[in-house]
Design a protein that fits this description.
There is one protein chain. The protein is of the alpha+beta class. It has one domain (about 5-250). Helix content is about 30%, strand content about 20%. It contains 7 helices and 10 strands. The strands form 2 sheets. Strands 1, 2, 3, 4, 5 and 6 form a 6-stranded mixed β-sheet that branches. Strands 8-7-10-9 form a 4-stranded mixed β-sheet, sandwiched between helices. A hairpin with a 2-residue loop joins strand 4 and strand 5 (about 125-130). Helix 1 (about 60-75) packs parallel to helix 5. The longest helix has 18 residues, at about 180-195. It starts with 5 loop residues before the first strand and ends in a 5-residue tail after the last strand. Mean pLDDT is about 85; it is low at about 1-30.
Length: about 260
């Protein structure tokens, strides 16, 4: 299975993918062809640490990947005159692509020396790097494997999260590799961040970006998909059909 070209092409209204939560037609996740498709395309690299004898659980990896994405988006280096800001803007001017690769041992240590942010949660570690051109990956990252990122849970995560915790719901009708799922929940976390007002962002950031990833029951999925929540529709380059709704995201419940 392949998590390459895992591209969000959804608006945050959960409808056609052509608008953001304010009704703007300029959402970076529009589905229709737009001039940004002709712009230089960038990708957000994520690397998950998978040691041979101690791999993380699937849910820990998914939640940590989603948190890594919002850590990058909220970092001061990603906005204004920050050192990563130009690359983040270039990335968001094109299609929103994320690629998940895996590393262990010396590979992980070399990757960790590159500029980026490491998120940790449970038994998982995921490092996110500033966006790079599709054909301009650093050598230390380009040689890492994309395929084979399959993880399992050691027990079934159950229940919703508590107050202040965002929920990212996976479509129960789709089968995706763990790497693909990591990219999709990263898209969902990004949509949530864009959909929040400043007070919501501050509260979520100050709490450490608590979030949970769950696979919805079939009946619950239908209800979630109909609520107009931030929704990820996949471009369909790998694993699922174009336009497939992969993730629905619920805002944190404020105290």
């Amino acid at each position: 299975m392949n998590s390459r070209d895992s591209t969000a092409s959804a608006g945050s209204t959960g409808s056609t993918g052509s608008t953001d939560s304010s009704g703007s037609t300029n959402s970076p996740l529009r589905q229709e062809p737009v001039p940004r498709d002709e712009a230089p395309q960038f990708v957000l690299p994520l690397v998950v640490r998978i040691e041979r004898n101690e791999p993380p659980s699937r849910t820990d990896a998914l939640e940590t990947a989603a948190r890594a994405v919002v850590l990058m988006l909220s970092d001061a280096r990603s906005s204004g005159d920050g050192e990563w800001a130009a690359r983040v803007r270039d990335w968001q001017d094109g299609r929103i692509r994320k690629v998940v690769r895996r590393a262990r041992g010396a590979e992980w240590r070399k990757a960790s020396e590159l500029p980026g942010i490491t998120a940790a949660g449970g038994g998982a570690e995921v490092r996110v790097f500033p966006p790079v051109p599709l054909d301009g990956w650093p050598r230390e990252l380009s040689k890492l494997q994309v395929s084979g990122t399959e993880l399992e849970d050691r027990g079934q995560p159950v229940g919703d999260a508590g107050p202040g915790c965002a929920l990212l719901w996976l479509n129960p009708g789709l089968h995706m590799s763990t790497g693909k799922e990591m990219a999709q929940v990263g898209h969902g976390a990004q949509l949530l961040w864009w959909d929040m007002d400043e007070a919501g962002r501050t509260a979520w950031r100050d709490a450490g970006f608590p979030l949970a990833v769950r696979t919805a029951a079939a009946g619950r999925w239908a209800e979630l998909a109909a609520r107009g929540l931030p929704t990820v529709r996949d471009a369909g380059f790998t694993e699922v059909a174009p336009g497939s709704v992969t993730v629905v995201a619920e805002h944190p419940v404020r105290h």
